[in-house]
């Protein structure tokens, strides 16, 4: 089934070249099917890259999906053109009165800052509070997972001795949980962050379940027991070369940066890193859409307050 995206979005050409079925607004509006309404609050600096990564993953299901791209009004992107942002993004005030089946809040390169020092923190808190009554299920990624756990449950983050950077083995602590249905017993996922969350901070919150972890990278998938919120501390949406680009960017800046863990073949940065997390990544997003959103969200989104 297709994914509905705005006419002219740059991701369309890339995805169509990969034989992914994307559909324009016009064609979708002439079908008698209610698509899932998914909003994406894109906090990453590379907006177009992140759009493409997430749309690719959301398209890998039998569900028709309508994407709404959101930006913060209190922080303007400096890495993406103003024309692109005006053409394809909305502000929170534009959609405040709407209901959505799902919301994705992406990571952001601000983890070294205290939450309250992030320029758009107050606006993000407004959005996270709004999501409790206007969104059926919210998926928080990397820094957004830390921000969401802190805002909703008082979970604290802590600085790491060095950047958690690379591709790490993970395993499910609750293998029968729907979000990890079909996962291999050991699966890989990328991480790129300077802060972490202690397992003890999660387990002391009765409303949360730790679903999957890594012996090195720590807690990975945390779910609210009512399934309305999901927190993923890594970047399963990353392309094969995203960590490589981050590594060479920092090298070019003269920053101290170690090779990404378990990433380049034979630790040779001149060799192409393989994508060994694609299968897990597709399952993670399709399980979220199916079990956390589609199977439970009300058909009439006006009934969301009763769900």
Q: What are the secondary-structure elements, in order, as H or E?
A: EHEHEHEHEHEHEHEEHEEEHH
How many separate helices? Answer: 10
Runs in which pLDDT lies below 50 for 5 or more consecutive residues are: none
Overall pLDDT score: 90
The second-level CATH architecture is 3-Layer(aba) Sandwich
CATH superfamily annotation: Class I glutamine amidotransferase (GATase) domain
Note down, in words, how this protein is organized.
By secondary structure, the chain is an alpha/beta fold. The protein has one domain: Rossmann fold. The chain has 10 helices and 12 strands. Strands 1, 2, 3, 4, 5, 6, 7, 8, 9, 10, 11 and 12 form a 12-stranded mixed β-sheet that branches. Strand 3 (36-41), helix 3 and strand 4 (65-71) form a beta-alpha-beta unit. The protein starts with a strand and ends in a 13-residue tail after the last helix. The model has no long low-confidence stretch (mean pLDDT 90).
SSE arrangement:
Layout: E1 3-4, H1 11-17, E2 22-23, H2 25-29, E3 36-41, H3 47-58, E4 65-71, H4 82-88, E5 89-91, H5 92-95, E6 100-105, H6 121-134, E7 135-141, H7 143-153, E8 158-172, E9 187-196, H8 199-203, E10 208-214, E11 218-224, E12 229-232, H9 242-252, H10 278-294
Parallel strand pairs: 1-2, 1-4, 3-4, 3-6, 4-5, 6-7, 7-12
Antiparallel strand pairs: 8-9, 8-10, 10-11, 11-12
């Amino acid at each position: 089934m297709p994914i509905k995206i705005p006419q002219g979005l740059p991701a369309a050409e890339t995805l169509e070249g990969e034989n992914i079925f994307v559909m324009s607004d016009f064609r979708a509006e002439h079908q008698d099917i209610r698509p899932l309404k998914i909003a994406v609050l894109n906090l990453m600096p590379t907006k177009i890259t992140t759009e493409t990564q997430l749309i690719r993953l959301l398209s890998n299901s039998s569900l028709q999906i309508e994407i709404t791209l959101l930006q913060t009004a209190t922080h303007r992107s400096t890495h993406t053109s103003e024309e692109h942002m005006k053409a394809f993004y909305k502000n929170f005030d534009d959609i405040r009165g709407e209901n959505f089946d799902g919301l994705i809040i992406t990571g952001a390169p601000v983890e070294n800052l205290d939450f309250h020092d992030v320029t758009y923190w107050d606006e993000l808190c407004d959005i996270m509070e709004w999501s409790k009554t206007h969104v059926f299920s919210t998926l928080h990624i990397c820094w957004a997972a830390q921000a969401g756990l802190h805002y909703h449950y008082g979970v604290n983050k802590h600085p790491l001795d060095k950047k958690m950077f690379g591709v790490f083995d993970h395993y499910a602590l609750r293998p029968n949980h729907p979000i990890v249905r079909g996962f291999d017993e050991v699966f890989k996922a990328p991480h790129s962050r300077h802060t972490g969350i202690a397992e003890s901070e999660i387990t002391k919150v009765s409303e949360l379940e730790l679903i999957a972890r890594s012996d090195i990278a720590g807690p990975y998938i945390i779910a609210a027991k009512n399934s309305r919120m999901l927190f993923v501390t890594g970047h399963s949406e990353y392309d094969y070369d995203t960590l490589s680009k981050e590594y060479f960017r920092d090298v070019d800046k003269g920053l101290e940066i170690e090779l990404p863990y378990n990433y380049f073949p034979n630790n040779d940065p001149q060799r192409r890193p393989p994508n060994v997390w694609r299968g897990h990544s597709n399952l993670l997003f399709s399980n979220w859409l199916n079990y956390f959103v589609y199977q439970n969200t009300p058909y009439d989104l006006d009934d969301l307050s009763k769900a």
